[in-house]
Structure formats: C-alpha cells, structure tokens
C-alpha cells in the first residue's frame, strides 16, 4: 500500500505554511525536496566523518572514502552500469554534458560533421553543442516536434545520416513532460555509427533506467531532482569510450604521476574527477537512491500517473486554460498558459495561496518559441503530492482569473 501520510512525513520541509497557507510544493521538475534520511546522512558526514577522500590514511578519511565509494556502487547498481568505472560524479547534468562535449566532442567532432539534438532539449543540451560546432565547423541539426510536444520521428530518421557523430536527446522533457522513445533512437543512431547521449535529469526519479538495456553511450542526471543534494550529479559512460577520452579538468586525484615534463592520468573513473569532490553530496545522493528503491518504481509510477491524470482532467475542464504539451507518453508535468494572465503574474498570485509552481521558459526557450508563448506556468508532481494540493492550485488559478478579468 502507498501510504501518502508516511511519505509526506519523510519530508520535513512540507510541514510549513506560506503566507499563512499550507505549502503545496508543485515545482518538482526544478528540484525535489529532501527526505529526512538524506538530510541526516549529509549532516552525519559533516558532524562525524568530514575529511577528504582518496588521500588520507587517518580514520576520518578512510570512513569518508568508504562512504563515497559505497555511493558509487549504489549508483552503478541503480542504473545497471556495466562497471563502477563507468560512474563519474559531476556537479550535475550540465557539467556532465559539458564534459562530454569538451572531452569526447573535442576529439571526435570535426568540420563537416553533424550533431543531432531535438527541439525540446534543455539549454544545457543545446548550448555546449552550439559552442563546439562553432569552434570546429560542425553543423547542429534539430529534430522537430509536433503540436502535442512529441518528436516527429520521420524527421529524425531523415536527419540521421553517416555524417551524424552524436545524437543528444532528453529522456523526459522538463518543459512538456514528454517521454521520448530513446530506445528506438539509440538503436537507429548506432546503426549509422553515431554515439548517443541521453539527458536523464527529469527521468531518473520517475522511470526505471537500465543503461545496458537502453545501450546508451552516455547517460547523465542530477541528484537534486532525485531527492538528493544540489551540486552533484553523475555521468554514466560506456567504459570503452571513456577510456579514449582526455581529462576534462586537471588537478588533484585525476593523476597517477606528475612531473614538469609529463603527467600520467589516473584510471577510470578518477581521471574525470579532478579536485576535492562534493563528498557530502555524493554520499547524500547514494542515500537518496536508497530512498527511491525503498518505495519502488511500480509504486512511484502508479502514484504519479494518478496525480497527473487528476490534474489533467481539471485542466481540461478549466475555462481559459491551454495546456502546453499533450503527448501520449508523458509524466509528472502540467505546463499551461491562462488567458489574459502572464505566467509570471500567475506564479506570484498562486504563491500567495501557498502553492509553489514554476513560471518562465524553463531553460527551454525553443519550446516556448515553437508554441508561440513567452513562458508557461508549470506544475510538476512527485510522490509526496496530493489531490488536495492540485485542488488548491486550481482554486488559486480561479483567483488569478478574477483579478485579471
């Protein structure tokens, strides 16, 4: 049984009022809240084990290192990585993509080559490839979307060619909620010899991800969207590809030997983890994954589908509301615009009712341009949300309509 009261009790931040109203936190696509077990794990590291990893022989360093590497094992198991050597900790999805663009792309993308991404990508999976293509003379191509916010797969098949060196695709759109057919895209891309990067920042807390089953070359995500700390994420890369890539940054721990004449680099995954890492964040990330596993994706998926269906039905019946993103395969995100009310004004008004939503372009400006809107309001759901909170949102929308009528 899914015990919503028990789940909500795990998240201390939810037990508060905003402007005298109970908090209804519906901005989970931006960042999820943290369960007490994650907060306690991070606190415990700083209270008892604070030391650098991989460097010291004293007890604190050895304990910190053990917990840090245990988190790597947890992440590897969670995503079914082929080896722990494939698990590289980063500052988040953005840094992971920049690492790939700089290290892999800097070696393999040349003038005349093509990089293929989609129209619904987050800016972090657009800008690094634009920068690389501008630098080397490659071409960036884009798979279009339809009015439902779905990829036009015939166009993908046409755009994919022997000139395509990398396909970058978001697993689940943060602006639309669309779940993309990444398995099909990976298979087709590999048939042409292209490497595939999947941006899993939105997907990993909602969908079971098996990188071996997907056969993805790179899968990236962020801990803070998975009930973990901010400032930490992971790149899971195919070991045979990672071995050929030069380091992204130089510094401590990514070396095995340094002289003024030559530096020899460390083995995977440490070759890509220069400097002191976000140790507490990584350990907290491991605990967040354990928390997800304690609930299970069957229960998570069922609950979140119920919430989305409930909110979608209310949106469809709400006069003057236009949904942005109505894909057949979608999850957890309800983006919309309301007649005569700018999304930023809407976000401010519903905040006064205790409801936290996101208003803006969601780091997906090309999506806004396609739908010809300056921004959208976005309610995004997680396992601790309730139908009552959805009701509160729509009551707040009615008040906003009345103000601007």
Please outline what is shown here.
The chain is α/β, with parallel strands linked by helices and 405 residues long. The protein has helices spanning 4-9, 36-49, 59-78, 93-108, 127-136, 153-159, 182-191, 211-214, 239-242, 279-295, 297-316, 343-351, 365-370, 387-404; strands spanning 17-18, 21-22, 24-25, 87-90, 114-118, 139-143, 164-170, 195-199, 218-222, 233-237, 255-258, 263-265, 321-323, 333-338, 355-356, 358-360, 376-380. It folds into two domains: 4-27 and 296-404, Aspartate Aminotransferase, domain 1 (Alpha-Beta Complex); 39-293, Type I PLP-dependent aspartate aminotransferase-like (Major domain) (Aspartate Aminotransferase, domain 2, 3-Layer(aba) Sandwich), CATH 3.40.640.10.
Count of DSSP strands: 17
Q: Could you give a short account of the major beta sheet?
A: 7 strands, mixed
Query: What percent of the residues sit in helical stretches (DSSP H or I)?
Result: 25-40%
Query: What is the 3D shape?
Result: globular
Per DSSP, the total helix count is 14
For this structure, the CATH topology of the largest domain is Aspartate Aminotransferase, domain 2
Structure, described:
- The protein is an alpha/beta fold.
- It has helices at 4-9, 36-49, 59-78, 93-108, 127-136, 153-159, 182-191, 211-214, 239-242, 279-295, 297-316, 343-351, 365-370, 387-404, and strands at 17-18, 21-22, 24-25, 87-90, 114-118, 139-143, 164-170, 195-199, 218-222, 233-237, 255-258, 263-265, 321-323, 333-338, 355-356, 358-360, 376-380.
- The strands form 5 sheets. A 7-stranded mixed β-sheet has the order 4-10-9-8-7-5-6, with helices on both faces. Strands 13-14-17-16 form a 4-stranded antiparallel β-sheet, with helices on one face.
- Helix 4 (93-108) packs parallel to helix 5 (127-136), helix 11 runs parallel beside helix 14 and helix 12 crosses helix 14.
- It is globular and about 70 Å long.
- It starts with a helix and ends with a helix.
């Amino acid at each position: 049984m899914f015990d919503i009261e028990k789940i909500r009790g795990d998240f201390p931040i939810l037990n508060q009022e905003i402007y005298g109203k109970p908090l209804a936190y519906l901005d989970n696509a931006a960042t999820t809240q943290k369960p007490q077990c994650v907060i306690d794990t991070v606190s415990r590291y700083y209270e008892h084990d604070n030391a650098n990893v991989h460097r010291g022989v004293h007890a604190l360093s050895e304990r910190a290192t053990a917990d840090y590497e245990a988190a790597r094992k947890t992440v590897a198991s969670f995503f079914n990585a082929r080896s722990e050597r494939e698990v590289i900790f980063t500052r988040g999805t953005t840094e992971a993509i920049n690492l790939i663009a700089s290290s892999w792309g800097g070696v393999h993308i040349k003038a005349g080559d093509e990089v293929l991404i989609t129209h619904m990508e987050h800016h972090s999976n657009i800008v690094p490839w634009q920068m690389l293509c501008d630098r080397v003379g490659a071409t960036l191509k884009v798979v279009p979307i339809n009015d439902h916010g779905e990829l036009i797969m015939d166009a993908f098949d046409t755009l994919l060619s022997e000139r395509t060196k990398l396909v970058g695709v978001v697993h689940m759109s943060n602006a639309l909620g669309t779940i993309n057919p990444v398995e099909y895209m990976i298979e087709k891309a590999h048939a042409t010899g292209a490497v595939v990067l999947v941006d899993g920042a939105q997907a990993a807390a909602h969908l079971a991800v098996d990188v071996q089953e997907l056969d993805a070359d790179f899968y990236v995500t962020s801990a803070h969207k998975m009930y973990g700390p901010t400032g930490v994420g992971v790149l899971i890369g195919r070991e045979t590809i990672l071995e050929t890539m030069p380091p992204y940054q130089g510094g401590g721990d990514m070396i095995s030997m340094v002289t003024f004449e030559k530096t020899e680099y460390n083995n995977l995954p440490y070759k890509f983890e220069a400097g002191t890492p976000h140790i507490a964040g990584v350990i907290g990330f491991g605990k967040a994954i354990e928390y997800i596993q304690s609930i299970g994706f069957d229960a998570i998926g069922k609950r979140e589908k119920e919430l989305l269906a409930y909110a979608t039905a209310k949106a469809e019946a709400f006069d003057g509301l236009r949904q942005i993103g109505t894909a057949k395969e979608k999850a957890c995100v309800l983006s919309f615009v309301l007649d005569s009310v700018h999304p930023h004004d809407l976000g401010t008004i519903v905040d006064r009712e205790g409801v936290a939503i996101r208003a803006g372009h969601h780091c997906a400006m090309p999506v806004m341009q396609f739908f010809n809107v300056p921004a959208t309001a976005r309610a995004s759901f997680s396992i601790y949300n309730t139908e009552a909170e959805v009701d509160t949102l729509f009551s707040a929308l009615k008040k906003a309509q009345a103000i601007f009528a």
